[in-house]
Amino acid sequence: MRSERSYRVYAFSSYRNPGIDEIVRSTGGSYHIGDVNSPEEVKQVVGQVSPDLVVIGPEEPLFRGVSDAVRELGVPVLGASSKCSMVERSKVWMRELMWKYSIPGRLRFRGFRSVEEAASFISEYGASVAVKPAEQVGGKGVKVAADLQAYLTQEKRSALSKGVKEVASLIKEGYKVIIEERVFGPEYTLHVITDGKSHLALPLAQDYKHAYANGIGPETGGMGSISGPGMLLPFINEEEFMGTFEIVKATTDAIKRETGEEYSGILAGQMMLTTLWGPTVIEYYSRLGDPEASAILPRIDGDLGELFEYAATGRLSRVSLAVNEERSVVWALAPRGYPLNRAMASGHRVSMDLSKMREIGCRVYFGSISLEGMSLVTRGSRALEIEAEGDDAVEKLERCVSLVSSEVKLIYRPEIGRNLEEQVRLSESVRYAYKLRERNNTLGVSVNWSPKSGEF
Amino acid sequence: MGIFAFDEVWNVSRFTYYGLVALQHRGQSTAGLSLLSRIGISTKAERIRVEDMDVEGLEGWASVGFTGVRDVYPVDNGSVSIAIDGRTAADPLTVGEMVFSDPRAAVEVLGDYSSFIALSRSGKIAAYRSRLGLQPLVIGGFGFDMGIVASEPVALDVMGGEFRREIEPGEMVFIDKYGVESLRVKAPLESYCAIEYIYQARLDSKVNGSSIYEIRIKIGERLAKERPIMGDTVIGVPETALPFAVGYARALGLDLDLGFVRTGTPQRTMILADQFMKLVGVQLKLNPIRSAVRGKRIILIDDSMVTGNTLKNTVFNLRNAGAKEVHVLIGSPKIVSGCPFGVEIPDESELIAANLPEDKISAMIGCDSIAWLSLEGLTEVIGHRKLCTGCMTRIYPKGGDSH
User: CB contact, 8 Å: A216 with chain B?
Assistant: First the structure.
């Protein structure tokens, strides 16, 4: 992350993020507040600043064509085009693409335009299915029920059907719900930077979705993450890493053939190691995942600005990546109330001894927290991410958490970064099973059947 | 057990029911559950087998459930519901009322020998495991939808949930809509109940970090080392003693046979509180398979011996079915004393091993020889000495003040 070159960083954001603000000030840039999803507003800011490179963080501006607008101005931009970001925006589009181009790691699925259809499908295929909103809605509304075991079916089905209504209410048009075959196994994310011609894989990471301690509670954007050691994770081997890289590369190629546009930016495969395929795609991000990026980026030795610039200007083949071997661990801190009650989680003052935390060796990232006057105030989502590296990463994080005080209780997941043995054991049994399929030529072969509607 | 759904669309009544069915080996004379819904806490608790409990029409997004031998739980007073596992001199509802405002004081009132799960009307579950760890207690979840606490992980398995970890002795866990919190209330004085390992916990459970199946196989292997008998076949008394028989036969290279077929449901004879049922129970339930035992020298393994009457009947039936010799092995050390902590073991006056010498016991049972697992053998198999073996040694762990 260190840079030999001197950058001037400008920011455009919907609110003043204290961490970004610090960087902007220290590099002599300027901070602009506005609607980052509006191509017009972004163009205006780009016009004022006339930057050498624009990096787009979140997915929503990509969906709305912000990257296309910046490209039109002739300014290099790291961020997929609106068409290319369909791979994240629409799960049905993504799955259809994977099937059309026979990309390994695909799951059987069905998209539904009406809630009623989906609900009746759920009750017919009482076997294991995963229900998700068909379009990206900021991670909200995903309800995956565990195995529908025969004797519990009625309860789960009725709750699932209620869940479907809730999920669908978040979507405006087109496919409302996607139902997929359900798989299990350890999850991990591979981020790939590409200029359309060359691909560069970043170290693997794993994020943790459950909101509360012990891996319990509602789904969040992620309450923490781990990365490393090396390019891998303790439960994913080199071959699986390469297999995953091939899947992501094949996907960028397929997107190009489908849309006619070069995929330029970041494509992250949210993966699962399954007995069905080995590496299996659960979903794609068209940007850096959060909080995975907080665990990955600090481990990259070298100039990130240069890396992004080369990717944005089609010169990625010149770059090679050096990665710090040591593992990293990230804990997110969120105000109590998150994620079920934003109002309850908003508007609370938080303070911390930042210099002491840095002394300990932790990096602190500001998330959903804004600088209002002299105070840091929660905005309802994950307020801070704290990152530490090395074998004693977890101990460092514990010390840092004690240096944060808040008007509201902050929730976090102290077990993240600990006890990976269970996942290692799980991956070993999954690995045995998919290897057996590989030998029997049955990778990816599965079916659901119902007496009424037959095969799905 | 207790369930908390983070979204009120869920009705947890049947989840609780099936969780309790999976825990019914811990006691099946009483059953009950409390549910929290828009109308508050409602409770149903009866002297009934959990499987016979009718939960049709009951609704709520959070629950406390119980299946037991004598005590009828949960009890509620409208603002809180609680189920206690183990013995306490305290009034359960007093503990339940206190725990949500002052958990430490609630545990002071409770004492060191029992565990509990409480549910408040305001929507919070508190689960506490005794500092001695006498009763097991685990925590887990169901997808993104529920937090669950239960005596054994099998309760989570059957409902499709995920076991996360055991609650530590002296630890209290709170679950509500906005978080899962852990509070270290008491320093642990680990003294895990030895009976959990021998027959109380379910075979597919994991208790105190140990796989129950592995431990019971090892008990069989240990018996083979302590008392090798080269008979014709090894038979375990179903269901609990079957893994002992597997371990014993494996270790000595002997045949293993299924000696009995059960009539009716597999309830533990010892847990049936009714004396009369205990006597007639075994005949009714364990019918010997004649062709498996006829003409054979049999090593019969049982999990424990209380009054000896069940075993006497079993041996009688085996001989009646044509067995040549019957050598009895018991997968536990001699049980010589009752349990003050709530495990269903009769008083000393009813325990044959506390009252008769071995030769007399052998004569009473009507077997050709008899032996028990040694206490040393038991602790070696379990792998540590942080155990309560009070019913075998008359030495009971003491709570906080005396340590």
Answer: yes
Contact list, B180 vs chain A (CB under 8 Å): 212-214, 216-217
Exposed e or buried b for every residue in A315-338, given b needs 16+ CB within 10 A?
Answer: ebeebeeebbebbbbbbbbbbbbb
Give the residue on B whose Cα is nearest the Cα of A422.
B164
Q: Is the pLDDT of residue B93 over 80?
A: yes
ipTM higher than the 0.90 cut: no
Chain A residue with minimal CA distance to B56? A155
Is A425 at the interface with chain B, CB within 8 A?
A: no
On the question of pLDDT at B381 being above 80, the answer is yes
Kind and range of the H or E element at B103? helix B103-110
Residues in chain B: 403
- For helices A91-100 and A238-259, give the axis angle rounded to 10 degrees: 100
- Residue A127 CA to residue B184 CA, distance in Å, equals 41
φ, ψ dihedrals at A439, nearest 5°: -65, -35
What is the average per-residue pLDDT within A283-295? 95
- Per-residue DSSP letters for A221-264? S-SEEEE-STTSBTTB-HHHHHHHHHHHHHHHHHHHHHHSS---
pLDDT digits (tens, 9 = 90+) for A162-195: 555 555 554 545 787 788 888 899 999 999 999 9
**Quick one: tokens of B124?**
């919070």
Question: Per residue in B98-110, pLDDT tens?
Answer: 999 999 999 999 9
Within 8 A of B18 by CB-CB distance, chain A residues are 151-152
Q: How far apart are CA A60 and CA B356, in angstroms?
A: 80
**How close, in Å, is residue A201 to chain B by CA atoms?**
31
Topology of domain B2-189, CATH: Glutamine Phosphoribosylpyrophosphate, subunit 1, domain 1 (3.60.20)
Per-domain boundaries in chain B = 2-189, 194-393
For A105, left (φ over 0), alpha (ψ -120 to 50), or beta?
left
Are A213 and B162 a contacting pair at CB < 8 A? no
Q: What is the overall mean pLDDT for chain A?
A: 89
Q: What's the predicted TM-score (pTM) here?
A: 0.88
> Is the predicted pLDDT of residue A149 greater than 50, yes or no?
no
Inter-residue contact A180 to A109 (CB < 8 Å): yes
State the angle between helix axes of A153-168 and B13-22 in degrees (0 to 180), rounded to the nearest 10. 140
Q: How far is A150 from chain B (nearest CA, A)?
A: 10
Domain at B194-393: CATH code: 3.40.50.2020
